[in-house]
Amino acid sequence: MFSVAVKPKPPDLYVDGSLVQNATILGPYTEGSTFILDCRSSGGRPPPLITLWNGTRTLAAKSHVQTTENGASDVIVTARFVLSRWDLESRLECRVQSNATLAPMVKWIKLDIHGE
Questions:
Q1: Which residue, 21, 43, 85, 89, shows the most beta carbons closer than 10 Å to its own?
Q2: InterPro entries, alphabetically (predicted)?
């Protein structure tokens, strides 16, 4: 059976469960606190590849894929980490890659972190 790739929706970023706007600076956070970042995209077929980045390195993350009745996929990727002064002004990115897009769709935030 031949199937056409379907472009996923642009990603949404969530911090501690709350939707955040693209290209914003969040904080201030305290160094040593736990930070939870979710990236969600829906409607892609096959499921898009979602990766989370801190600058030039990927973040360890858990991925959850749910397939809808029409065969499209909802994907949620979650990273949980402890903030350090090295995260100050870091650009945290969500990148969604799909066979149906030429380039990854990217959304990002920056963090304001205060030392203890």
A1: 43
A2: CD80_C2-set, Ig-like_dom_sf, Ig-like_fold
